[in-house]
Amino acid sequence: MGTGTYLDLLLSGLVVTVKVSVLAWIIALVSGSVIGVLRTLPSRTASWIGFCWVEFFRNMPLLVQLFLWFFVLPELLPRSAGLWLKQLPNAPFWTAAIGVGLFMSARVAVQLQAGITSLPRGQKQASTALGLTTVQTYRYVLLPMAFRIILPPLTSEFLNTIKNSAVAITIGLIELTGEARSMQEFSFQVFEAFTAATVLYLLLNFVVVTAMRFLERYVAIPGYITGK
Amino acid sequence: MIEINHVNKWYGPTFQVLKDCTTSVAKGEVVVVCGPSGSGKSTLIKCVNALEPIQGGDIVLDGVKVNDPKTDLPKLRSRVGMVFQHFELFPHLRIIDNLRLAQEKVLGRKSEDATAKGMKLLDRVGLKDHAKKFPAELSGGQQQRVAIARALAMDPIAMLFDEPTSALDPEMISEVLDVMVDLAREGMTMMVVTHEMGFANKVADRVIFMDRGEIVEDAKKADFFGTPRSDRAQKFLSKILQH
Questions:
Q1: Is it the case that residue A228 has pLDDT exceeding 60?
Q2: Contact between chains at B101 and A129 (C-beta distance less than 8 A)
């Protein structure tokens, strides 16, 4: 070969997977949190926006969404804008991160909504009665508890984000699965290639699970039911 | 201090929870609101600081109209303390931080001032040693005393109590009532929804009896317990004073 071992290939794929997953997860967490909050506000407009967002992103296969952003969107835009988009360096990477991120944001939003509505109604009333504004009530009272409650399912969503990033090979992103495939094509060693990729995925997800468990312990509240 | 004039409130298009309720609470007065469940007493008290909107009538608090869209509600609410049936301490904050939060975020007090004020009030309700604990580590009675201290930390001009002892074990009721009695004796303006007729007898100036969304009786304590005018109040009293 002369240009590095197959392990180097796989590891560079792993780095791409990690980068795309982390970026997608940040997008999912930030936009999902905003949408999740919107869905719990009394305002009709707010919950309507939240409803549309969630239904749009969760009711279409991820594969179709990535094709939409990568192949269809540039054609729908004015010619110059479309051309600019197509010629962006690293386009598959950014499309994958944003596409997977938005897809996952719908799931984060629904879970955060469930977390917020699972809190006693009196919590919001108590902080309102103290004179806190709606923003302050969410920031200091509702969200700290809601996020603690949904931490275990959020871990699953983070893992899903990592696994879903493999779909990005369909738009030409050579991440871990992509590298395993090219390794298989070079060497005809199907089992070895995908066993190695599997082990790397398992390791990566094990790291995430462990880190999240530490986080859960770190934010646990003494005496509170989920604190054990 | 609190004026409630011809207040009407509906849940949905048909169910009327409050029917033409009119009463008032003067400065330094302690008014107990009682009545069977579903009579609207909790709803009425939640209307006073606009936790519940009203559809008709007026509520005026210290000269400020509560149901005026131009009223700065957070500011108004920060001047009235409220204590809930289920305490509603913030579970992720230590006791002292529960007392500090609104002082700092709403009143803009400095951290050390808010802490000092909080510790003073915790001492007053006998819980100074628990300042660093979390709410779930305290008993119900202790949590409710913290909730009272949290409301007092805002230097309220009046206090609203929504069934403060209904969720407590019997042996913890008195520790909460003791704090409330002290408050009343210091001249705090109080509106208290409760079934504790002993408390009413001890410190109330007036008793309001509600039934099916109406204020059926609004009388001086002695008149209410001595000779309630309405049948419904008589029946209610005879039932809850039986034992």
A1: no
A2: no
Per DSSP bridges, beta strands B206-211 and B30-34 are: parallel
Q: For residue A87, is pLDDT > 50?
A: yes
Is A78 a member of any domain? yes
Q: Which residues of B touch A143 (CB under 8 A)?
A: none
Neighbours of B230 (CB within 10 A): 13
Encoded tokens for B234: 């008589």
> What type of residue is B167?
A
Backbone angles phi, psi at B155, to 5 degrees: 50, 60
pTM greater than the 0.80 cutoff: yes
> For B198-210, how does the pLDDT look when each residue is reduced to its tens digit (9 = 90+)?
899 888 999 999 9
Residue A4 lies in a domain: no
Chain B residues within an 8 Å CB radius of A127: 90, 102
Checking if the pLDDT of A1 tops 70, the result is no
Q: Is residue A124 part of a domain?
A: yes
A45 occurs within a structural domain:
yes
- The domain tally of chain A equals 1
Distance of alpha carbon B2 from the chain centroid: 13
CATH code for the domain in which residue A128 is found: 1.10.3720.10
Task: State which residues form the domain around A134.
Answer: 15-219
Instruction: Answer whether A34's CB lies under 8 Å from A112's CB.
Output: no
What is the SS3 string spanning A58-103? HCCCHHHHHHHHHHHHHHHCCHHHHHHHHCCCCHHHHHHHHHHHHH
Give exposure, A53-66, as e/b (b: 16+ Cβ within 10 Å).
Answer: bbeebeeeebeebb
* Among A116, A124, A125, A130, the residue to mutate for chain B (most B Cβ within 10 A): A130
How, if at all, do strands B190-193 and B158-162 pair? parallel
ipTM of the complex: 0.91
